[in-house]
Amino acid sequence: SSDPYVKVFYKDALIGQSQVKKKTLDPEWNCSVKYMIGCDDAEKLKHAAPSASGLGPKFLLVLLDKDKVSADDPLGQVYIPINVNGIEPQWFPLQTGKQGEQYYCKKAKGEIQVEVPQG
Fold it and tell me: What does pTM read for this prediction?
């Protein structure tokens, strides 16, 4: 089992983090992170076509396994696109990330459900 938690990033800055769920492979966080994007990104959102291409602003969610003795182990990550209409609750498959990056996970598996309210 794992002690999983989620870190939420926007433009490489940590903007939020869930609680650690002890000894589980099926965590439920029901966690909320509020963040106001800047004017430049808001303008990009107004003119961007809704797509999953990843070209517009996005959040990065990194799942980690809390470790008391050594560094926390990455479990996978996912980019969540941002759009003016928000995102209804949706499941996103975890990805490995790019080899050599801080949160690279060779064997990422599973998925996470995310909702982004209309803002």
Answer: 0.86
CB neighbour list of residue 85: distance below 8 Å, 6 or more residues apart: 50, 118
List, as own/partner pairs, every contact residues 68-75 make where C-beta atoms lie below 8 angstroms and the sequence separation is at least 24, other chains included: 73/105, 74/103, 74/104, 74/105, 74/108, 75/2, 75/4, 75/105, 75/108, 75/110
Task: Count Cβ neighbours within 10 Å for each residue of 78-95 and write b for 16 or more, e otherwise.
Answer: bebbbbeeebeeeebebe
Interval 18-73: pLDDT, tens: 999 999 999 999 999 988 777 676 666 666 555 545 567 889 999 999 998 999 99
What does each C-alpha distance from 73 to 13, 29, 57, 77 come to in angstroms?
Answer: 19, 18, 26, 12
